[in-house]
Amino acid sequence: MAAINRKRVLLGTVAGWLVWAMWSLVVNAVLLAPYYEAAGDAGHLLKEPRYAAPVFLASWFLTLLIVTGIAAHVYAWVRGTLGPGPGTALRVGILVGFCAGFPLSLSVATWVPVERVIPLWWMLDLWVGAILATFVAAWLYKD
């Protein structure tokens, strides 16, 4: 088994995270913004966050960085077994994205009185973001 190239994992993590962060901004600041406003007006979401916006945003993007690092490491670990390339990156991204996005979004869609488009896009933010981030990390990874 070849040793993991930690510098390339770190490079892939940062690059993948940048892609995921941009995707997340599009989902939340562009696509979901009108739904957030309507849900806030209806009293289904808080109009003001519990955590100040800078604290939440920093925490959110740090979380995406950590999950991207996990996906990049998993890709580096399994490429020896599954082979390097986009097929392996897709598998890892799908698995990590499912674990990150599906369970909580299912709960929100079931129990929180917001339009179901909100948890759907939250799930897609995490699922598609994980896939994109893993593709980028895999593209940059070299043994």
Number of helices: 5
Per DSSP E runs of 2 or more residues, the count of β-strands stands at: 0
Give the domain tally. 1
Radius of gyration: 17 Å
Shape: elongated
Secondary-structure element sequence? Answer: HHHHH
Low-confidence stretches: none
Q: Span between N and C termini?
A: 11 Å
> Structural class from helices and strands?
mainly alpha
**Residue share in helices?**
over 70%
What is the strand content?
Answer: under 5%
Oligomer: single chain
The mean pLDDT is 96
Sheet with the most strands, sense and barrel status: none
Description:
This protein is mostly helical. It has one domain. Helices cover 80% and strands 0% of the residues. The protein is built from five helices and no strands. α1 packs antiparallel against α5. The longest helix has 30 residues. It starts with 5 loop residues before the first helix and ends with a helix. The mean pLDDT is 96.
